[in-house]
Amino acid sequence: MTESPLAVEAAGTGIPVPAAPGARRFWRRLRAQRAALVAAAVVALLVLVALAAPLLTALEGQDPTTYHPSLIDSARGGVPVGPLGGVGAEHWLGVEPQTGRDLFARLVYGARVSLGVALAATVIQVVIGVVVGVAAALGSQWVDQLLSRLTDIIVAMPLMIMSLALLAVVPANFPRPVLVTLVIGLIAWGSIAKIVRAQTLSMKGLDYVSAARLSGWGTWRIARRELLPGLAAPVITYAALLVPMNISVEAALSFLGVGVKPPTPSWGQMLTSADVWYQAAPQYLLLPAGALFVTVLALTVLGDGVRTALDPRAASRLRVGTGREDRNAREDAGTKEATA
């Protein structure tokens, strides 16, 4: 089959779909964006820290669950002994108030939970959203109506309230990180399903899809060979923006006490325990909050960079707009000179 046009803009989404952009072209466009490169480096560093958490804590000689009561001043209500919350050669970022658990170990292990939950939930959302969106667009009228109404219901569901309800009724012995991943993934796929359906409907009438249909190809073969490559750009773009959103949701659920349970560390859980210690031990609050802020910001900037790199007309639109502004400025200057 022939390749699709350079870009197809789905109705209501405003996201152009490039056809087979090519890895080299994508990386060239991405490298031209310094902010995206910095964000990618930060994300890569965070992932590396999460993967190397056992090695990093072994180098420090600590673990995230061991209590150190000797490092806590019980007479002062459990404040860590020593300056800066007990920072030293054995505890690089100090220790937790009341428990004496190592902050560095809990921070790097918390990155594993927060990033792992967010990435796994994003994969679930993308898989369900793509399947439902494509099935609705290519199915019969009643299939489209059924799946579209189901998607509307999912979109209308308040994510936090539904998550709180589901997490509250599940038995406590169920692995909490897995449960949080499933809850987020199964409740928040509606938006990507709507985007995929709109994109697929706009691509169904293109010449290369019609040629495939006239050649005798089945519906799902056309979807796999002709439509899915064109859906890659909006799906990847939206998935890159879902990851920081899912990190925030996981942190919020843990902060509310229904997410990841102790002794498994997560950044949201650390914030829950730190809310009463921000004056006596501010680093206990600032470290997980800062890690969340940097991670969400880096992933958001990277997602925007990926969107621009996958849009073959973004750079040209920028150049055309800039050239038009320069031309208008020159014309205005010439008019002023003529009138003077």
Overview of this structure, please?
There is one protein chain. With 340 residues, the protein is mainly α. The chain has a single domain, classed as MetI-like (MetI-like fold, Orthogonal Bundle), CATH 1.10.3720. 69% of the residues lie in helices and 3% in strands. It has a two-stranded antiparallel ribbon. A hairpin with a 6-residue loop joins strand 1 (7-9) and strand 2. The chain is elongated. The model is unreliable at 1-21 and 314-325 (pLDDT under 50).
Low-confidence stretches: 1-21, 314-325
| Major sheet: arrangement of strands | 1-2
Total domains:
1
Q: What's the CATH H-level superfamily name?
A: MetI-like
Spatial separation of the terminal alpha carbons: 62 Å
Helix proportion of residues, in percent? 55-70%
What is the radius of gyration? 25 Å
Q: What is the mean predicted local confidence, pLDDT?
A: 80
Query: Which word captures the global form?
Result: elongated
Strand content: under 5%
CATH class: Mainly Alpha
Give the topology string: H per helix, E per strand.
Answer: EEHHHEEHHHHHHHHHH
CATH architecture, by name, is Orthogonal Bundle
CATH topology, what is it called?
A: MetI-like fold
Number of helices: 13
Give a count of the beta strands, DSSP E runs of length 2 or more: 4
Strand pairing plus helix content: what structural class? mainly alpha
Summarize the biggest pleated sheet. Answer: 2 strands, antiparallel
